[in-house]
């Protein structure tokens, strides 16, 4: 369940960015706090059904489209996420990531 919450948060963040919305603007549109949107996108809170319906309306999409996670399973997406992580991670995170990678490579 936790993995789905992370993916849902990522999906909402991606859709929001594609619409050119900030967290603040989305929060204003759906009458929620910016803090709540941030927690939702980072999987630190479970969304209510009402919140999901409001987000879908704000994005002008069907509710089910929020749960279209197909792109997150594509190899190109995974590669891009790894590249983004490598470019933005600090040395400590990179070293931990490398240890995990090496343990999987054995």
What is the arithmetic mean of pLDDT?
Answer: 91
- Identify the CATH architecture of the largest domain: Orthogonal Bundle
Order of helices and strands: HHHHHH
CATH homologous superfamily annotation of the largest domain? lambda repressor-like DNA-binding domains
Number of separate domains? 2
| CA-based gyration radius | 16 Å
How would you explain this protein's 3D organization?
Helix 2 packs across helix 3 (34-41). The longest helix is centred in the N-terminal third of the chain and has 17 residues, at 2-18. The two termini are 29 Å apart. Helix content is 69%, strand content 0%. By secondary structure, the protein is mostly helical. The protein has helices at residues 2-18, 23-30, 34-41, 49-59, 75-88, 91-105. It folds into two domains: 2-67, lambda repressor-like DNA-binding domains (434 Repressor (Amino-terminal Domain), Orthogonal Bundle), CATH 1.10.260; 74-105.
